[in-house]
């Protein structure tokens, strides 16, 4: 996932709108036709929560339908963003962003039924430190831990009924130690020992 590019246009318009300095906390509407060509049919609304316009809410609309909503506070250092399907209105993705260019926190994507599909967490350096995916019914499908961009630590995969399907440890993106494999009832099928991603006796 790369949410950074999705908010580039919002950054430009955010800075432009800051210069205009609204006098109250009401929403201001900005038509993108005044600042960009060719026209993309996007419009923006801003609501500032303080006098220096470093905290508030930005909303973008496509043909009048809500597309994104960005909350910024702590003088612009923290933002939470939501992306929506403009046809159905459903939530597609949520992000936590620092300074609009450093991704820190959790990105979550959603199924059409509103339940989480995937979650990816980034540490203060913006590197992914864990990833989790879910079945459409809501049960966890897999969880993977990372270190320096590589799988590191325990990885567990689940069956749709919630029982463990496979579990084991990774070191520097290679299987290391004993991996266990289970059937859908949670009964152990077999276990294998790995060294640097190769099966050992």
Automatic annotation (TrEMBL):
SUPFAM superfamilies: Histone H3 K4-specific methyltransferase SET7/9 N-terminal domain. Residues 155-170 have a biased composition (Polar residues). Residues 1-22 form the signal peptide. InterPro entries: MORN_2. Residues 150-170 are annotated as: Disordered. Keywords: Signal. Coiled coil: none annotated. Gene3D superfamilies: 3.90.930.1, Histone H3 K4-specific methyltransferase SET7/9 N-terminal domain. Pfam families: MORN_2. It comes from the Bacteria. This is MORN variant repeat-containing protein. The lineage of its organism: Bacteria, Pseudomonadati, Bacteroidota, Chitinophagia, Chitinophagales.
